[in-house]
Design brief:
The chain has about 220 residues and is of the alpha/beta class. Helices cover about 35% and strands about 20% of the residues. It is built from 7 helices and 8 strands; from the N terminus they run E-H-E-H-E-H-E-H-E-E-H-E-H-E-H. It binds D-xylitol-5-phosphate and zinc ion.
Length: about 220
């Protein structure tokens, strides 16, 4: 099993002390920083956009793992890459066709960024199979996108397991990331199912034992 990557989601950070919270998770050993961008249209919540990413993307050494829960990813992808995204993950459900999914992946790669595709809990994992040879990452949402602090949806384990089997059988190089309701318990089963990257927001931010919590996730 590869080394697990921990990606704290700043959605749960204290925005009044954002840089301090980012430094805390970096010093505690997190390899990636997860940015949950929400537009209030694709998901029923608004979080933050390019200006926030631009202002913090170079203030740490972690990988900028940007998750855009927005409509029309083709239009906005370049903006997030220019603002500092190293991985840019968009939603399968935000595209009108498989052709459009491929167009967004190609656009992200043209800008020198790694491309990820995310699926909501109700989207069958098989929907991402046609794109796997072009993708750097698949993000399995284990909660309905829109809010931090929700309960992990148990069916997500089998989605991760099926995807891991398909990737291994077909010798595909693509990371598997899971996002939503990740804590010490759910992380254990996600790792057994074959996940590479764990996103965690409310389990990490707002606690004074972040280092221990990150270690428990691994
Ligand atoms: C949902 C968000 C959350 C966030 C993680 O749209 O993507 O899943 O990253 O939140 P927690 O770890 O608090 O569930
Ligand atoms: Zn996310």
């Amino acid at each position: 099993m590869n080394k697990i990557i921990v990606a704290p989601s700043i959605l749960s950070a204290d925005f009044n002390h954002l840089l301090e919270d980012i430094k805390k998770v970096e010093e505690a050993g997190a390899e990636w920083l997860h940015f949950d961008v929400m537009d209030g249209h694709f998901v029923p919540n608004i979080s933050f956009g390019q200006p926030v990413l631009k202002s913090i993307s170079h203030s740490h050494k972690m990988v900028n793992d940007v998750h855009i829960m927005i409509s029309d990813p083709f239009k906005y992808a370049p903006e997030f890459i220019k603002a500092g995204a190293n991985f840019l993950t968009f939603h399968y459900e935000a595209c009108k066709s498989d052709k459009e999914v491929f167009q967004v992946i190609d656009l992200i790669h043209d800008y020198g960024c790694k491309a990820g595709l995310s699926v909501k809990p109700n989207t069958p994992i098989e929907k991402v199979y046609p794109f796997l040879y072009s993708l750097d990452l698949v993000l399995v949402m284990s909660v309905e996108p829109g809010f931090g602090g929700q309960k992990f949806i148990p069916e997500s384990f089998s989605k991760i397991f099926k995807l891991r089997e398909y990737i291994n059988t077909n010798k595909i190089k693509c990371l598997i990331e899971v996002d939503g309701g990740i804590n010490e318990e759910t992380a254990k089963t996600c790792k057994l199912a074959g996940v590479d990257v764990l996103v965690a927001g409310s389990y990490l931010f707002g606690h004074d034992d972040i280092k221990e919590r990150i270690e428990k996730l691994r």
